[in-house]
Every structure is written in structure tokens, then in C-alpha cells.
Amino acid sequence: MLNTTLELSRLEDTHSSGAYVKRDVQIVRGQGARMEDAAGRSYIDCVSGHGAANLGHAHPAVVAAVQQQAGTLITCPELFHNPVRAQYQAALCAAANMPRVFLCNSGAEAVEGALKAARLATGRPGIVATKRGFHGRTLGALSATWNSHYRAPFEPLLPAVSHVPFNNIDRLVAALDDTTAAVLVEVVQGEGGVHPAEEGYLRAVQEACRANGALLIVDEIQTGFGRTGSLFAHQPEGIQPDVLCLAKSIAGGLAMGAVLLGERAGEFVPGTHGSTFGGNPLACAAALAVLDTLQTTHLVERARTRGAEALAHFRAHLSSETVRDVRGRGFMIGIELRGKVAPALRALQAHGVLALSAGRTVLRLLPPLVITDEDLWQVVSTVEEVLNNGI
Ligand SMILES: *Cc1c(COP(=O)(O)O)cnc(C)c1O
């Protein structure tokens, strides 16, 4: 029997697809903002499942909802009505101020649904996306993703997709024509290096879309559900997306995605879209618990205020010898280094902090919204030590 940590890690390396570079740690459980490895060592988790664990690990509201629903009904296609799905769809639509929603199972799938909705509503093929944008790895979503490292091996991709510089409204307006179905943007580019939209940019994008007859698709797969200090990051921008893509933290870590459809996007007519697992009651129950928790606690506001404090602290204390720039919003923080980020990630892990990269040179921190003040300042001081003193 294989039972040592090392044997099980080797077994995983032998049979995994090869798509992932794994870190040298075996995670066995999580609680709040903490994760524990097989040797019982505790880490502060600023990966948050790539942003899927805004409520942290084993959140009691999510655990209770999943346990209760698992014993009631796990699967039930949208062929039938279901009371948990009904409640969730209504709650999510109200929260986003949008009339309709298509439920799916991941971020890439939400983007695929959005691209189809835009083609269906406008009868046009074209998509304008942004440089450094990331939208997922299925063929349609990949076509809108910028990084050529992800795209090149799979070309040819969707035709009629163009990329314009983010935060440049003139270049965007110039890219729109009567073949443009939609503009696809993030509010804060995540994988692309944590680049927030500049003040007024998204309002100008919305105006250009309306003038052109194109839809505005906002990808909030990473920024949604409180991450940036508001329930959805687009809300303080004063815009109303025509299509809104959500996933990651939507269901407390369970696989789920959503495509919200505004008035200009209309609706999917029967037969034009579907998903076997989409809208399953288990994911809906978890998602209902997540939304309720975010709407009835101060976690979102805390991400805004504590995130701003951490950002200000980094700006004031990180050495410009090793750090080029500090960016972010709420609990989505990017620290652009002058060198490669990989050694810093290893050093942070050695000091009990798990963090992410965003490209080769950006250190990305996505702490769970439930992180304690003590753990947050522990993260801040460890990052400072690692980057300033090279510990
Ligand atoms: C993660 C992410 C996706 C893709 O989500 P998956 O669930 O991994 O398919 C799409 N867009 C953005 C902005 C993301 O951060």
C-alpha cells in the first residue's frame, strides 16, 4: 500500500496530465485562511484556490449548505424546476441588477456562454478583447486571451478576435466596427499582472459599445464576490455590463460559473446553449450560502479597507531596488518585481505564506476575505522581509 507523503506525491506526478508545475508541498486540509500540509505544517493561504476561496476554507455556512443539499438532491438538470436554483438565480440577478442568468461550471465556460450570447444577440462575429487579458483556456475563451504562450500551440483559433491595449479608449474605439459583437474586458486584469482599469475607462468603453451596437462583456471571474472590496468590481465604476461572467468564488470553491444577461443581451432561445451540470442544486446551495454571507457580513468592506492598508504599507515600505510597482484593489494585490518572481514565491512558502505569480515578474496576493488581521500583517511583514532583505 502506498501511504507515505512522498509515495503519494510521486504517484500523482506519474499519472497527472503534465499540464501543471507542482509546488513541493502536499496540502491535506484547510480552515479559514490557513492550509495544512501532510506533515501538519500550517500556511497562510494567499492563493485562495486561484481566487475560488474568498470565504476561505471550510466556511461553516458553505459546509452546512453542502452537507444539507448533498443529502437532499445533488443533480437535477434544468429540464426540471428546482427550488434551490430558483432562489439562487433570483438572488444573483438581484445582486448584479441583471434580469437573466445561465449557470455553468467554470470560468472558461462562462466566457464561452458570453461569446455565444453576444453573437446570438447581435448577429455579428467580432470580439474585441484587451492586451494582457485572460479569459480561460477552452478554444473560444483562449481566442480572447492575450498571452501567446497559451495561444500559439492551438492556432488557428476563433477568427474575428482582436486585442487592443487596456486603458486606451482611443485604440478601443478605433477597433469597433459593424462586425463587432462585443468588447470583453476585466475590471482588474488578474493573470495579466494585476492591472486595474483607470478611472473612467470602463464608462468610456460602455459608451463606445452602446454607440456601436456591440455588447459590453465584463469578465469578473476573478474580481467578483468581494475580492476587490465591492460585491462586483464593476459596481463602483458606475457601469452596467450587458453580459457578466462569474465563476471562481461563486460557490465557495465548488465548480460553478454564471453568465448574467442584461436587457441588451436578450436571452438564449431553446437549443442554443446548455450544460448537463449547469444549475445543479448542490452548487446552487453553496452559492446561495456564499452570496448570503457576503451580503450579511462586513467581509467585503473589510477587503476594501484592509486591502487598501496593506497596499499603502507595501508602497511605503517595499524597496525600490527590488520592486518596480505595487498595484491592486481590495484583496487583489500585485507587486511587480525587477527580477523573476519564482524565488520570492519559494522563499514565502518556506516562511509559511502561499502566494501566486501573475506572469514572470508579478507577485500576486489573493488572501481569503476571512483572513484575520494577525495573519494579514504576518503576510505583509513576511513579504517585506523576503523582498527587502532576501530572507
Ligand atoms: C480564472 C479566470 C478565467 C478562467 O476560469 P476557469 O474556471 O479556470 O476556466 C477566466 N477569466 C478570468 C478573469 C480568470 O481569472
What does this structure look like?
This protein is of the alpha/beta class and 391 residues long. The chain has 2 domains: 5-59 and 302-389, Aspartate Aminotransferase, domain 1; 73-296, Aspartate Aminotransferase, domain 2, CATH 3.40.640.10. It is built from 13 helices and 17 strands. Strand 1 and strand 2 (34-37) form a beta hairpin. Helix 3 packs antiparallel against helix 10 and helix 11 packs parallel to helix 13. It is globular. The mean pLDDT is 97. The protein binds pyridoxal-5'-phosphate.
- In DSSP terms, counting alpha (H) and pi (I) runs of 4 or more, how many helices? 13
Distinct small-molecule ligands in the complex: pyridoxal-5'-phosphate
What is the radius of gyration computed over CA atoms, rounded to a whole number of angstroms? 21 Å
Structural class: alpha/beta
Number of E strands? 17
CATH architecture of the largest domain: 3-Layer(aba) Sandwich
Summed over residues and divided by their number, the pLDDT gives a mean of 97
Relative strand content: 15-25%
Supply the CATH class of the largest domain. Answer: Alpha Beta
Element-level helix/strand string? HEEEHHHEHEHHEHEEEHEEEHHEEHEEEH
Q: What coarse outline follows from CA principal-axis ratios?
A: globular
Distance between the ends: 39 Å
